[in-house]
Amino acid sequence: MRGLSGKRVLITGGASGIGAATAKRFLEEGSAVVVLDRDAQARDHIRHELPGLAGTVDADVSNLKQVHTAFDDAIRLMGGVDVLINNAGISIRHNFLDITPDEWDKVIAVNLTGVFYMAQTAAKHMWERGSGVILQTASTNGIMGYPYYADYNATKAGVIELTRSMALELAPKVRVCAVAPGYVLTPMQRAEYTDEMLEEVNRKIPMHRHAKPEEIAALFAYLASDDAAFVTGHVYTIDGAETAGGLASR
Hints:
Elements: E1 8-12, H1 17-28, E2 32-36, H2 40-49, E3 55-57, H3 64-78, E4 83-86, H4 101-129, E5 132-137, H5 150-170, E6 174-181, H6 187-192, H7 195-204, H8 213-224, E7 235-238
Parallel strand pairs: 1-2, 1-4, 2-3, 4-5, 5-6, 6-7
């Protein structure tokens, strides 16, 4: 991709799954990369797997003080932040009637409040510098209705509207987009599904499989690149046509 060499990229939730694949892709493009993750063991693992990282930082994105400290650490490690991949998120599979207030608060805190904290912190830095790109991980769950993830779905719909609003206010200096993956075979996803459930889901996807994390990373790389210089304010679905047919694809 044009313009990614030398770019300074901060990836939240970057030590596993889509985040780790995205870190690897940006390193391959010649970018400097810092991974933010609150899982110490995962940070150790990603440093071993990707020795070319500029560094890793520890933060709970739902804690504004920790976000500010981590962002300052990323600036210290790279000299600035040109691209934020706002990817950290959690999910809890529950029937709607069984979601507890604590579970609701936890999912909202990480998936929506944490995205806002990171986005606003990065946007202030980029606005002062005159340029930047903020890319946020949404989901087809924020576009369609899915059972058992009401809290998660609500946060991803919120991320989509936050993205659109930010893009309007931050143009022309800062571009803001969201990526909305469908089913991606990440460790978090795999842990929630039995083999039978996985096969059942694959049957309803026209491509007959889950996405690979590397395929989501490729879209992030394009959207951050100079090839996407006029791309802002939109949500890009990558789901193997799962949502293209509505009920017909289920």
